[in-house]
Amino acid sequence: MKKVYLFFILLTCLTSPLLAQDSYEDFERGLNLSGPQRAKIEDIKKKYMAEWKTINREIMGKRMELRDLYRNPNQSGERIERLHREIFELESLREDLFGRYKAELSKVLDEKQKERYNDFSNAEKRRGMSPMGIRRYGR
Amino acid sequence: MGDRKAVLISAVIFVIFIALTAITGYLQIKMIVKNIEGQLENEGELVFNHLKREIDINLEYLNLLEEVPTVITPKFLSIMVYDDAIIDELYSYLKEIKDLRKEEIPLSNFIIVDEKGEVQAKRGEVSIDGSQITSFLTKKEGTFIRLPSKKNLLTIGVKLNGSTIFFSIDDRELASLRKRLTIKEIIDNEGRRLNVMGINLYDERGAPYLPLIARPPKDAHTLKKRLNSKYLPDFTIEIFLSKRFALDLTKRMAVNFVFILAGLSLSGSICTYIIFFLVRRHERKLREFEKEFETKERLVSLGRLASGMAHEIKNPLNAIGISIQRLKREFVPGDGKENEYLQFIDIIRGEISRIDRIVEEFLLSTKAHLPFTVENVGEILEEVRLVLSEKASEKGLSIKNNTERQVMVLCQRDRIKQVFYNIILNGIEVMDTPGGVIDISYAVKDGEVHIAIKDLGPGIKREDIPRIFEYYYTTKHKGMGLGLPISYMIVKDHGGDIRVHSEEGKGSTFIITLPIKKI
């Protein structure tokens, strides 16, 4: 019987924050972006998006290469190490880009909108819901 | 017949009781099982709602990804880096297929070639030319990757067990795979996290959307319903929840119940047997009491009659006695028949004495009104021994009194004395072997004195023992059948009892039990 109670308690604890979170649409609607704000944000996004995509593809290629190396019994340790370093550098670059994107974004948003953006970002992290972004190379 | 009926009624009542208990227990278990199933249903609903919400939230992001939303959140960033995971998942899936067959490959554009580069299977278009294929086949590397460009799609080649597969993925297919994998990840992770046995998802046609990750487990409670998701409108989800806990609980309850039932049956049987046994014993005692009461009543009425008669008989007997004495003394005939005359006179006197003794016994046996006094049993027995020693010695017998210890009883001295007298006298009369000893002893136990009078006579036949206390029953030639019933009645009047142990050819022991007077 204890197991059943424990299950319900866990389920309640796990699902409560979920139920409290807005969907992305609600979040964006709640920002109440003005026309000029929206135009500025679109420009910022375009500026970073192409770069992100390029970095992502590069990371993907390197990860697949890395995975191939791991599966090869005659793998070269030096090459694996080099690939790890390169992936790490690319990931850092992507994080930097996101940091710069957020900095530029915060210049466009007012305080209330910034607060809402931060809350939503934190809720996404807190939920830990996403199976996405799982590192799969080297398994 | 009465016994059988009593047993039958007890058995029927007992069976009804057990049957009712069994039915109650069965219904109780059924109710608990129903409650547990209800609880499992609720649990399934909770899991369902949670999965639905999780799928909705994640698919919302995926849908928006194609158009790229206005504001980029960390979540979108992570989704964008997700494509390598999708390719990795695809790679793992292909590796698991032992024999690459066209219909098993979930891709729109692929080509399978052998070690020589000969095409074995093909679907759609793959943006790779023959020279690239040949070049890759000669290399040691296991994976070929060509990142997407304006001209070409993302193209990947993987060497698998002698065959090589090349596939191209466009953005649409990547999005579809992304969606599929996202849902698979949600189902896998959440299923594991919520301790669910398995989850299956079926598309709008009822076909498995993902490879069936869970066959219906044996001990599972299944919840199957439409997902009603905004992004998967006509999909159905099937959730398997473990019933093991419920089954374990039910099994334990059933086992416990069987034990309880067995315990009840056993204790019930024992109780029924005890009750039956006690009732039988009570009935037997009641019958004995009734019989005893009847005998006593008979003896009492006989005693009253005898008492009246005794008084009536005693007076004429006295007159006859005196007359006989005078006849013997004053009217002896002188014609040579003196001796014969005197002989007859003696016979008459002897018989008158016998009649007198019988009358005396009757008179004494009915004197229940005599006062009770505290007496030493040993003394009374010694007095009886002295009276009867001469009679015993006439037959070469002796009476041995082993009652040295003083035991006081509240009794009617003369009547108890008569009891001892009757039993010892019986012993003397039945013993024929000179040198024989009548042994008197007693023991004190549980507030009673048990006086044992043991003779070495021929014993009493087993079949005669139950009748020896009956009135007028005797095995002696000259017996009247009065001594033992009268003795029995007197002892019963004192709250005691007489039992006899006898073995044919070895003698008899009469045990007279009397309550001890506590001083």
Brief characterization of the structure:
The complex is a heterodimer of chains A (139) and B (519). Chain A is mainly alpha-helical and 139 residues long.
Task: Describe what this molecule looks like in 3D.
The complex is a heterodimer of chains A (139) and B (519). Chain A starts with a helix and ends in a 12-residue tail after the last helix. Helix content of chain A is 81%, strand content 0%. Chain A is an all-alpha fold and 139 residues long. In chain A, α3 (35-71) runs antiparallel to α4. Chain B is an alpha+beta fold. Among the domains of chain B are: 287-350; 367-515, Heat Shock Protein 90, CATH 3.30.565. Chain B is built from 10 helices and 15 strands. In chain B, the strands form 4 sheets. Chain B has a 5-stranded antiparallel β-sheet. In chain B, strands 10-12-13-15-14 form a 5-stranded mixed β-sheet. In chain B, a hairpin with a 2-residue loop joins β4 and β5. The model of chain B has no long low-confidence stretch (mean pLDDT 82). Chains A and B meet through α1, α2, α3, α4 and α5 of A and α1, α2, α3 and α5 of B.
